[in-house]
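Handout, section 3.2

Students often ask what a structure token actually looks like in practice. Rather than define it abstractly, here is a full record for Putative nucleic acid-binding protein. The first block is the sequence as you would receive it.
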Amino acid sequence: MSRQAVIVDTNVVVAGLLTGNAASPVARILDGMLTGAFTYALSEALLAEYRTVLVRPQLCKLHGLSVTEIDALLTDIAFNAIVLAPAPARPAPDPGDQLLWELLAARPELLLVTGDKLLLRDPGMGGRVIEPAAFAAAF
């Protein structure tokens, strides 16, 4: 099991919920969040973003969960998380991802797990951003 604390980007949570392959890295990460298999952090803003995205009508059609079921899923995710207050951070490559950069700034040992190519390529993060497959292989 990995001891490195991570932040799990919304795209990984969504992909984990939508995949039909339980052995895929994103499914394993979502399952790991739900079972507390690894240490992860989130902020109230990130949890709210998870919910905002998961309750979108187009996504609800794909994952088939009701709003009540989504809220139960998010309660389980929050239960196992370290909840942190964000810290001031340099601008993110995409302004919509600023909440992730601020959460990374809260603790220097955190890594961001994401499938977002723009974030993965950001040279200013110095190895703090990793792909789901790389993280899933570590736990």
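Discussion prompt for tutorial groups: The radius of gyration is 14 Å. How would you have guessed this from the sequence alone?
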